[in-house]
Amino acid sequence: MVAAPLRAQSADDQIAPAVPSADEAPVALLVDITSGQVLHARNPDRRFMPASVTKVMTLYLAFELIEAGRLDPAQVFAMSPELAREWRRKGSTMFLDAGEQVTVHDLLLGIANVSANDGAAVLAAGQAGSVAAWTAAMNDTARGLGMSGSHFGTPNGFPDEGRTFATANDLVKLARAMVTRHPDKFGYYVGRTGFDYKGIAQINHDPLIGRTPGADGIKTGFTNESGFSYLGTARRNRQRLVLVLAGVENGRLRGRLARAYMEWGFTALDRRRLFPAKAVIGEARVQNGDTRRLDLVAKGPVAINLPRGSKGKPTATIRYEGPLRAPIVAGQEVAVLEVTAPGVAPARIPLFAAEAVAAAGPFDRIINAIAGLFA
User: What is the reported pTM?
Assistant: First the structure.
């Protein structure tokens, strides 16, 4: 398996940063997942058919199963005669044949980089016992991520009379979970420039890879019913943006819009740093713990994106369901820092316990009770 060489930059790649118009992209969403700030949104909760972007959920579920020890990249699955009758050479493919054995490792690469419909079906049936059981697990996983506006009827997004649908907000949640929960697997399997299997070399049609600095790609989608869609991401200077486009008329336009949109996110806004990495952001009250206060920290530097040249002053508020209840594990997510500023959507940054808090012993409870009288 080899990646195709990087393509030389063409005049089409020299695109001015811009937000896509409503005529060009009826659904458009750009989010800084580093801060949780929405940089631009158009119809982010409108349901649409995601086509092959569905395969991102199949990849994410596979990553979760690998992490849980229920799936191994070295496992070998076979394409059954039943699967071959339905999926052999159907749409995007990695050219699997009836009875052919293939590793999970190669299936993941084929799904992620050449959108293999046959690969997604073989992975689904091989791990779960049936495609239906796999899609049920996809929907359970989606609910766990809070993807309330999405449903999956297939592992690959092939047209299914509208049973598969998603929203831009939900796809950003999925992308965030994939990047943050499985950074190593995401970095290894997703975003290659191509995939060579059985001596057949295919390129990845992701519009950002090799064209936009810092781009990892994720997944394109297309059917006649849904039009052209895209879920993509790029990272620069510790800032990661995720974009969604849907309902675009053609692939060339989708590529131009994606590159201009992502570049706008990185260049049209000033990123103002509020707290350095490892800084104590604030504190939270603790109930029934061996301490009554807990320092709160973020995973990295805290920043907000403001319109270029803006003089607006950000305001930060710590929000949590309080008081927190001990015991609390160091590094546990316990609060959110909400940062607001004029003219932009708020940023919501998770905050974590700087240290562990044990449950209070008898003496601690007496001290806490007395202290509470004077609080």
Answer: 0.88
Tokens of 118: 């046959």
Token pair for 79: 């394409």
**Over the stretch 122-169, which tens digit does the pLDDT of each residue have?**
999 999 999 999 999 999 999 999 999 999 999 999 999 999 999 999
